[in-house]
Amino acid sequence: MAEEWLGAEAAGSGSEEEEEEQEDGERRHQQLLEAVSALTGRKRRKLAERSEASAQVSEFNVSCKGAGEKLVLSELLQPIRARSALSGVKKELSRVKQKKAVELPLSKEEAERVVREAAYAKSSKDVGKWQPVVLQNRRAEQLVFPLKEEIVAVAPLEQVVSAWKPRTPLEQEIFGLLHKTQQPITDPLLTPQEKASLQAMSLEEAKRRRAELQKARVLQSYYEAKARREKKIKSKKYHRVLKKSKRRKALKEFEMLQKSDPEAALAKLEELDQLRMEERMSLKHQNKGKWARSRAIMAKYDLEARKAMQEQLARNKELTQKVRVELPEEEPADVPEEDLTSTAIPPVSVGASRANPWMLGKPSDPAQEPDVPEGLGDAAVPVAVESKEEMSEEEEELSEEEALLQDFQQKRQARQQQGEGPEQHSEELTVLPGVHSVIEQGADETEVSEQLPGDGPIHPVSVEEQVSPVIELPLQAQEEPLLSEQLHRVQTMEDIEALASEELTAEQEKPVAVGTEKPACRQEEGKAAPKPAKKPTTKKKIISLQSVLSGKLQEAQCPSLPVVVVEEEGGFDQRGVITEAFAGDDVVADFNREKRKAEQAAKPQPLNLVLPGWGEWGGTGLKPSNKKIKRFLIKPAPAPPRKDQHLPHVIINEQRNIHAAAHQVSELPFPFEKHQQFEQCIRTPVGSTWNTQRAFQKLTAPRVVTRAGHIIQPISAEDVPSMAATTDTGTKLALQTAPEQHKQSSRRPRKRAR
Amino acid sequence: MTDPGPASPAKRILTRSSGCSTSVDTTPPLSPAARFSSCTWRSTERTGDAGGPTAHAWPWAPGAALIPSGGDLGAEPLRVSRDCAESGGPGSSGHVWRKEAAVGRRGGSGCACPCACSAARMRVKVLSRNPDDYVRETKLDLQRVPRNYDPALHPFEVAREYVRALNATKLERVFAKPFLSSLDGHRDGVNCMAKHPKSLSTVLSGACDGEVRIWNLTKRQCIRALQAHEGFVRGMCARFCGTSFFTVGDDKTVKQWKMESPGYGEEEEPIHTILGKTVYTGIDHHWKDAVFATCGQQVDIWDEQRTSPMCSLTWGFDSISSVKFNPIETYLLGSCASDRNIVLYDMRQSTPLKKVILNMRTNTLCWNPMEAFIFTAANEDYNLYTFDMRFLTSPVMVHMDHVSAVLDVDYSPTGKEFVSASFDKSVRIFPVDKGHSREVYHTKRMQHVITVKWTSDSRYILCGSDEMNIRLWKANASEKLGVLAPREKAAMNYNQKLKEKFQHHPQIKRIARHRHLPKSIYCQIKEQRIMREARRRKELNRRKHSKPGSVPVVSEKKKHIVAVVQ
Fold first, then answer.
1. InterPro entries, per this entry (chain B) (predicted)?
2. Closest chain A residue to B428, measured at CA
3. A487 vs B517: CB contact, 8 Å cut-off?
4. How many domains does chain B have?
């Protein structure tokens, strides 16, 4: 009932019309009565009275007084409490009562926010898989870009051409012309002939040809080398012998020819005749040449020269003599001149050069030629061959090569005619491995020799000490601007020098200012008690270039000055306290000891140049003589008086060099934690003067390498080989980091502006 | 190995060596006794020589004690050295062939050399070098110079390297001439630029009068000009394959153009034109797919084949000035709007992700091409902010040096540095992990720089400015252009390393830091330094004079962030 009352009141308070005010009051009165009666505990159902005329008349005697009120379920249930027939309905109703209503759907903004949160968590997790890669790249000693070596794809010409079409009149005209001549424009880009020729040669044949060519080239170079070598031989004797042997060979050859092929011999004779005629026409051996004239001058004094002249004349005679024609039935031979020489090789040499595949059936080994016995006479040498010998050696060599090449040519021709003979194949095959082995051997040698210098000892220079990877970004607050921006431009070395010197003066000014302060202080100190706050300059540790240079760590020259504060106002008590506090240690004595030590250290040391054993007996237990010591111990000039010699309470460090200080680092730079680290880093030289080539290259390798003209694409998962493997760890990382972030951000936004 | 024939001992030459043996003829023309007057053999083991022939009875056997017995006996098998016979002995008139060591010769005979001597011929093992160590293979090879790296022989290494570093630094400053050329041709301020994704020598630019020009950087010429829009060209981007490019303009259109110039008789017209309802202020193309994004009232993501956007992303109602695709995780987008915020989007889920509100408006942002979650925003408050997209509450780094609004930013393709263009008529290069710039570029005639790009080979920087020019700079001011010989390269690397090593030394630091600035910027920097100092002082004073904890210390990084909105 109370509910009802409250509800009614709420309804009543809502209406404000004046007409109803009275009625309202009456109703309230009624309700009040009811409430009071309810308090007594007596339950009384009372029918509503109908007190006035109303439009809504109910037959069940229900007044309309609560028309605007809410219907409460419990109210409906009340009357049916007693009846058992309605218990089913009642249960159902009570169940309905227990059920909660569906909540209102979230507002659009809220819903969007939830979606955003989820999406953010997801994508930050996805991005987080790059974390290890990024860290690795940041730490990397060297990064080479582009990460992925791009393959230069050359579009085939056909494609390019097919895409192109003639547009301008000129182009069209040219195109038309090309079409007329049936020049292929698009696809194969080959004329039928070209195509045929391409198809003609099989791979095998091409290989064989190539091998042949290779062989020919090698041979050529071999003979060239040989010719050069032989040409270089200065020994007259050797040449003489050579000539003779050749002559002999030619003679033999001729005789053989006479027997076997008289026609050829006749032809040869004719040839010789021809030569004779030429000789007669020419002035070659008539002592008219430059050489001959010079010989003529020398002949007076030199027996050799005379002999040479006579020889030449004899040669002339021989050459101009008519050759008797013995064989009338001679036939013209088609053997070329070159072949004469090439065939004039004794079979012995062939056998000797068996080891060399190139030498099969080829000219004799040069090593054998000097071995030919010299004792044989040279009188019985045919004139014609003799004349041939006159030709220069080079020419001869050339002819040999030509012969060889011709040989090849012939072979090839023969092959083309015959088709592919099996014997030739086998021949080729027998020859080829030799080539390969020779070539391979050469290659191996070069390889080995190339490897050798590379295998040099690598000095164990630790690079890691040099480059300390900065993973964490330096603190923002600590950082100073990287640039010092000025109004004037520095363009030349002089400017830069000036810049440096300017800085130097600026640096110097500071110490000078300190210096000017100092005397004043000293004066004061001289008069009065020690200054309370005066501290030595060395207290601040300076990383000095000098100390680094000397290679040993500089010890702090003097510790911080103990300061005895004497206060007058404090009176006896305080003094007592202080003396009590410092009862154990004698500060003043300590200080004096320090000072004495500093003085001793600052004294210049004598230079000892005494070498034991020089000019006298040396060995263990023997000392250099006093005389020697006296002579070689160089005493230094006395040091200038110390600045603090009259200041009993002060130690002035005179080690500090203002000029050097301008070049020294005064603060420990960021990544270093101890000054020793920094000094170590500076002391390790980088240059090639102190390091092996390999170490030098390693030490000076740049951090980032880019290649000119190469586009650097953004990193992608394919670029990182470990990416597939690291994805798991990456996601884990992200999982570790992201949810935290997520929690943080999800807690806040309600407060924040949206 | 042994040569016959007499040779006088005075003419003998010995080689210091190890390995193969050469012969030394010690046969004098005299009798054995006379020989000992000029040539004597000593051996540490030989003092009590019993096995050898009598001729070798040592003249001064006790003198062996005088010979320093050499600490490194085992190091070299034999060492033969010529020695003036000062140390006395009966036959000290000539030279002494001193043979030391012979450790392994402890045989019954007690000595190796007497046998040789007895044959009137001596075979001495002598050190020799392998010709491979010093003979060149071809004459084009460099002579191999053996070098002793004993630190005692090369003293003063720090001092010498310091001087080298100083010189290198000075030379770097002398040769710092970054400006390469200016590309002129536009008839209005250059508003945007785009790199060609496949060609290094091609760059595109759009001007405030709606004209687009394509430039050849090697020839430094304009190869094509087209009137793309009416009014500004607001943004442009090339397709990832390099065959076409997109422009957006003030005339509310998006146009796609062919990269190639039209052929003979063809007209210059776009492949596609999309008419929009509102002005588009920026455009960016997806790095792998045929998708592009525009921004204006909202961020629209378009399929190239369609005339209506695939999806529109909105969050708030302010105009968005720029949108950029993430080059690595290509579904991510970042945008910045004029209500001072930076918004990230995910294309897959077509939803915005998060929003950061800064103190002032962000003009552009750029993603790091090597680090997927890092991006840098160019802000109106003269600073640049590098964010990690996973932790947006505070930037990773605040980059400050500009003295006016920063208008554009572009990353180096190596991801180690970025370049920023500012309204203060300068271009600055920042390392990603440093709060201050390492380089500042300016010229007398360069006005407000609106757009800047770092070329894809990471060697050059392009900037487009108000006064209608595009300028080409070297990214590394003192770099030598062109092909470098290997030795040049080595020297360059060495110098670089030295500069790095000695960078903290005051003289070197001073020289390396020096930059020339125009007066306007210089004065503004000074002024701002004073302002900053004043602000700091004031804060300190306030903290000092108020209740402890009531004025909290806010770090520089946090100071500029207003809020992060989920």
1. Sof1, WD40/YVTN_repeat-like_dom_sf, WD40_repeat_CS, WD40_repeat_dom_sf, WD40_rpt, WD_repeat_DCAF13/WDSOF1
2. A483
3. yes
4. 1
Instruction: Test A549 with B151 for CB contact under 8 angstroms.
Output: no
Least confident of A125-134, A149-158, B369-378: A149-158
Q: What CATH number has the domain bearing residue B419? A: 2.130.10.10
On whether residue B378 sits in a domain, the answer given is: yes
Across residues B526-555, what is the average pLDDT?
A: 94
Asked if A397 contacts A223 with a C-beta cutoff of 8 angstroms, the reply is yes
Measured between its terminal Cα atoms, the distance across chain B in Å is 93
Give the residue on A whose Cα is nearest the Cα of B148: A690
Is B344 domain-assigned? yes
**Is any Cβ of chain A less than 8 angstroms from the Cβ of B224?**
no
Q: A485: which strand partners? A: B515
Full-model pTM: 0.56
Contacts (Cβ under 8 Å, ≥6 apart) of A14: none
Contacts of A493 in chain B (CB under 8 A): 170-171, 174
**Exposed, middle or buried, A496 (CB in 10 Å: 0-12/13-18/19+)?**
buried
CB-CB under 8 Å, B505 with A662? no
Percent of chain B at pLDDT > 70 equals: 79
In total, the C-beta contacts within 8 angstroms joining chain A to chain B are 275
Scanning B110-251, the segments in alpha helix (DSSP H) are: 113-118, 157-174
Burial B14-25 (b: 16+ CB within 10 A, else e): eeebeeeeeebb
Q: What is the maximum alpha-carbon separation in chain B?
A: 121
Three-class SS of A310-378: HHHHHHHHHHHCCCCCCCCCCCCCCCCHHHHHHHCCCHHHHHHHHHCHHHCCCCCCHHHHHHCCCCCCC
B564 CB neighbours in chain A (<8 A) are 745, 748, 752
Residue B17 pLDDT level (bands cut at 50, 70, 90): very low
Examine the pLDDT at B28 and tell me if it is beyond 60: no
User: B515 in a domain, yes or no?
Assistant: no
* B338 in a structural domain: yes
Express the helix, strand and coil content of chain A in percent, nearest 5 each.
60, 0, 40
Q: Which amino acid, one-letter code, is at A483?
A: L
Condensed to tens digits (0 to 9), the pLDDT of residues B411-426 reads 999 999 999 999 999 9
CB–CB contact B158 A470 (8 Å): no
Residues 356-395 of B with CB under 8 A from A: 369-374, 389-391, 393
Contact call for B161 and A687, based on CB within 8 A: yes
Would an 8 Å CB–CB cutoff place A714 in contact with chain B?
Answer: yes
The radius of gyration of chain B's CA atoms, rounded to the nearest angstrom, is: 40
Question: Which residues in chain A have Cβ-Cβ distances shorter than 8 Å to B504?
Answer: 665, 669, 678
Amino acid at residue number A498? A
CB distance from A201 to chain B under 8 Å?
A: no
Flag if A700 and B493 touch (Cβ within 8 Å).
yes
Select from A671, A670, A505 the least CA-distant residue to B510. A505
State residue A90's pLDDT score. Answer: 79
A730: contact with B, CB 8 A cutoff:
no
Q: B340 and B358 in contact (C-beta within 8 Å)? A: yes
| Range(s) of the domain holding residue B229 | 179-481
- Give the span between the Cα atoms of B177 and B321, in whole angstroms: 34
Q: Distance, in angstroms, between A605 CA and closest chain B CA?
A: 22
In angstroms, the Cα distances linking B70 to B79, B81, B433 are 10, 13, 59
Could you tell me if B459 lies within 8 Å of chain A, comparing CB atoms? yes
Is the ipTM higher than 0.90? The answer is no
pLDDT at residue number A258 = 85
Say whether A686 and B174 touch across the interface (CB within 8 A): no
Q: Which of residues 435-454 of A touch B (CB under 8 A)?
A: 446, 449, 452-453
**Distance between CA atoms of A713 and A708, rounded to whole angstroms?**
14
Handedness of CA B15, B18, B20, B24 (dihedral sign): positive
For A392, half-sphere exposure in the C-beta direction (CA atoms, 13 angstrom radius) is 6
